[in-house]
Predict the 3D structure of the following.
Amino acid sequence: MKASNYLAKLPREATIKSIQVLKDYDLITLDVPIASQKLCPHCGSNDCVIKDSDTIQTVRHIPCNHRSTVVSFHKRRLLCKGCHSSFYDTPYWIHPSLRMTQALYDSILLDLTQSSPSPRSQDTSHLH
């Protein structure tokens, strides 16, 4: 496992191409290899080819040194040879419905569960 990927909570198979320090956030650009076999979400076939890879996706990532961080990578569109439908390859480390990494999503959930007061610790004296 690459130490830089581990420390930044990035997938081990990704390669960091560049890190740019911008005014409001840090931008990490990744090179992400495509999975060797990708199943079509429509028919379940694993006979899929890359249709294009020109789309760049940018998602929010966990902060580093109290600065916002975003990750950018090529989002690949695949074509199923079985049913001729096309779909985007969504990496496992990206939240399926939000524009953030799974690491950021998990971090937010952890923060919310740790900071919420338990029902017993709330002051109920005003209810009597």
In short: Residues 102-115 form the longest helix (14 residues). The chain has a mean pLDDT of 83. Residues 24 and 106 are 23 Å apart (CA to CA). The beta strands are 15-21, 25-31, 48-64, 67-80, 86-88.
